[in-house]
Write a structure and sequence with these properties.
With 234 residues, this protein is α/β, with parallel strands linked by helices. Helix content is 41%, strand content 17%.
Length: 234
Amino acid sequence: MAKSLPRLIEFPVIVINFKTYIESLGNGGMKIAKEAERVSNETGVCVCVAPQFTDLKSIANAVSIPVFAQHVDPYPPGSYTGSISVEALKDAGAVGSILNHSEKKLQLTSIFTAVKMLKDAGLLSLVCADDVEPAMAIAALNPTMLAIEPPELIGTGIPVSKAKPEIISESVRRIRSINREVKILCGAGITRGDDVYRAIELGSDGVLLASGVVKAKDPGAVIREMAEAILSFR
């Protein structure tokens, strides 16, 4: 049976990061989010989306699946021009935020502060790490989820679950030794159902991906293939 967080996230989970791809901007992002919602409703597999900031509120208002922000800054509301506050995410309808993606790195102290601010606001944190050692340090901060993403594989179509399976299996083993509550996701290069199957087989609780869905000719078909891979574990 899938383990769950109350009324929000069920595991194994698929999280789709829209990044700033032109394909996910405006109406394009809405279409992908709607496809994700349709597949989630039809299969029972939890699919989450992380739209571009300009589309965050409209998409969160339009779909029933969990919607994440792509980043949040560790600052309170006030004189922080250009920053994204936790309060703004909550107001927009996001359930949480991605943090420390390899394309938006943060210092460990900033991650700690942002994770705490999200938790205090009743929101979830999905923190990225590029290897086992930083993953261990981040796990100690008690995020909701932790995604292992070697940066050299991001956007390549080469899945970490196949190219560097030892990172996933070793991360799962060592993280579980210090934090049994955090959910561990596999990221980088995930493009097919087989990649998702292998990631779950290695002990992860789901996947974080981007271009494999966003830039696909038929995003809905790709999401469905991945959801069906997860169903084989139920």
